[in-house]
Model the fold of this input.
Amino acid sequence: DAKTTQPTSMDCAEGRAANLPCNHSTISGNEYVYWYRQIHSQGPQYIIHGLKNNETNEMASLIITEDRKSSTLILPHATLRDTAVYYCIVRVGVFGNEKLTFGTGTRLTIIP
Amino acid sequence: EAGVTQFPSHSVIEKGQTVTLRCDPISGHDNLYWYRRVMGKEIKFLLHFVKESKQDESGMPNNRFLAERTGGTYSTLKVQPAELEDSGVYFCASSQVWGRPDGYTFGSGTRLTVV
Done:
């Protein structure tokens, strides 16, 4: 799976949009971009994934650049409960390598 | 819909003892995964079941670890004998259909402490 690079930490004011960047310059054509988060000592929580097109669900939006070498996770109205470590993961999603390779992620802190 | 359930939530055992962790995936989910985070390191993949078959066990650290999924429902992960370096949090996850790029649902984990 392609390697990802994320900032170590970020702060965001409560109520503002949190934009978390991820670089995956070696991504292959059949690899998806996934975002998970881990809130304190809970299990990782799936947020969203995408292949080429931008995606939106009830939790977040995922913007993938046209060359697919980077992406941004957007939490539109951050709340204190969004404080967590966010992981950007690239993997083949269809009968391929099913492993999720967790890096160190971005520690997002929402400031009241 | 019930989530992924792991039992126990915490376990403290002495070095050399045996511990068995259990995971109940979401009903109907064919895929079951085990991951762990040890000593503040990154979360690492252990193995993947498709129904009752081991699809990928490349992450299992050594032969002291044995995972089973009899009947393709719940899974157990046995550590025998436990060593100090096995301390950490063990997560189980499940997804519905093999080959679909779905996200995984993780359980809350079992915190294992070996003393």
Notes: The longest strand of chain B covers residues 31-38. The CA atoms of residues 87 and 113 of chain B lie 5 Å apart.
